[in-house]
């Protein structure tokens, strides 16, 4: 026997689409939610999310049902989630609720009263220190949901990420969000033209830089191995990216943040190549965490790139670079100022992009489900 709402929808022939639409609306109005919305038993956990993407890269924003984290700063909350609730990260990021390239975040109080909110990022391996695509998405959401007082023009949001304070600007024109840009934390170069031997690839030349997270930057055009930075070549990109990441992690002992040991690790490898789209300056394909490929041009990754290009004198202050991703989505990037950061001459990068809401989820977790905490197939 069909459930009542299916019977009602399909009992007449559906010839007149206008009538059909109206019927759906009436039906949904008439049906008490009980008929189509699953009510989880009391011992099941329920977590609500709003799902988004920035340039194709997903962001699952956890908005309700997550246990409250203990701490008084974003880094303390990050330690708390790591130690106590990592099973919920895998539950929400891994299959069957997510996938190998899923990305998420959870919102928290800011580090001090001056901030709007804090944020922790999560992915298939753990918790990153910075995420530009998530900053663009969450700023969009904050404006869409009126978590901030939205006015025409630039709306400033102060977000405390694990790497520090990020300032984002949501531009609103005629009551519509047109774009979001953010000023990243001080970003700096650790080394240019380093080399590492990688099995199957030979000697790989890379730059090491920080843009809220540490990346090894591999310009394909400077290297001997061939790698086509297109989606058709997705698996080879992951394979090569992870090989280089592991080799650099073993070889390079300088992946140390000047102030915070929690930030001192290599997050990913960024392949740089020629753009395929006219009017774009460069292509950026980031392999991060446990072999995730960023669908966006990687906000933290292009921040580190701004430091590299500035150090090489390839860009001047406020000069804009358009960088595309593997999906051809674009971030517009520049350096807004020079600053000193610990022992480093650093820059403040600005990154601009757009994000969209894709849906809302109420996830339920059945304690009897043997796969309740997720799994990944690649
Ligand atoms: O845009 C970014 O910075 C992020 N996107 C996924 C990997 C990075 O954390």
UniProtKB/TrEMBL annotation:
Reactions that this protein is recorded to catalyse: trans-3-hydroxy-L-proline = 1-pyrroline-2-carboxylate + H2O
Pfam families: Pro_racemase (PF05544)
Gene3D superfamilies per record: Diaminopimelate Epimerase, Chain A, domain 1 (3.10.310.10)
E.C. number: 4.2.1.77
GO molecular function: 4-hydroxyproline epimerase activity; trans-L-3-hydroxyproline dehydratase activity
Enzyme category, top tier: lyase
Segments crossing the lipid bilayer: none
InterPro entries with a match to the protein in the record: Pro_racemase_fam (IPR008794)
Similarity section: Belongs to the proline racemase family.
Name of this protein: trans-L-3-hydroxyproline dehydratase
Species of provenance: Didymodactylos carnosus
């Amino acid at each position: 026997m069909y459930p009542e709402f299916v019977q009602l929808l399909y009992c007449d022939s559906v010839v007149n689409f206008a009538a059909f639409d109206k019927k759906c609306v009436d039906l949904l109005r008439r049906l008490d939610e009980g008929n189509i919305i699953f009510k989880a038993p009391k011992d099941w956990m329920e977590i609500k999310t709003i799902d988004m993407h920035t340039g194709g890269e997903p962001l699952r924003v956890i908005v309700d049902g997550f246990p409250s984290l203990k701490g008084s700063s974003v880094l303390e909350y990050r330690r708390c989630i790591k130690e106590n609730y990592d099973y919920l990260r895998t539950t929400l990021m891994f299959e069957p609720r997510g996938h190998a390239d899923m990305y998420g975040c959870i919102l928290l109080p800011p580090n001090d009263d001056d901030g709007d909110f804090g944020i922790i990022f999560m992915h298939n391996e753990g918790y990153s220190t910075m995420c530009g695509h998530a900053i663009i998405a969450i700023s969009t959401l904050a404006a869409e949901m009126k978590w901030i007082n939205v006015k025409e023009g630039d709306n400033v949001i102060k977000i405390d990420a694990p790497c520090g304070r990020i300032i984002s600007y949501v531009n609103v024109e005629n009551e519509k969000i047109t774009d979001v840009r953010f000023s990243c934390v001080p970003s700096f170069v650790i080394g240019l033209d380093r080399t590492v031997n990688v099995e199957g690839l030979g000697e790989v030349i890379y730059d090491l830089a920080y843009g809220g997270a540490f990346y090894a930057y591999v310009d394909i055009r400077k290297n001997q191995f061939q790698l086509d930075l297109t989606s058709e070549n997705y698996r080879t990109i992951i394979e090569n990216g992870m090989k280089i990441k592991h080799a650099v992690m073993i070889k390079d002992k300088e992946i140390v943040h000047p102030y915070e040991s929690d930030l001192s690790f290599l997050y990913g490898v960024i392949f740089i190549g020629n753009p395929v789209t006219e009017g774009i300056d460069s292509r950026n394909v980031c392999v991060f965490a446990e072999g995730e490929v960023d669908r966006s041009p990687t906000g933290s990754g292009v921040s580190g790139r701004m430091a590299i290009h500035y150090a090489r004198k390839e860009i001047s202050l406020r000069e804009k670079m358009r960088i595309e991703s593997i999906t051809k989505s674009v971030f517009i990037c520049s350096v807004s100022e020079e600053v000193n950061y610990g022992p480093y001459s650093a820059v403040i990068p600005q990154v601009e992009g757009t994000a969209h809401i894709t849906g809302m989820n109420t996830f339920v977790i059945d304690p009897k489900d043997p796969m309740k905490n997720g799994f990944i197939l690649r």
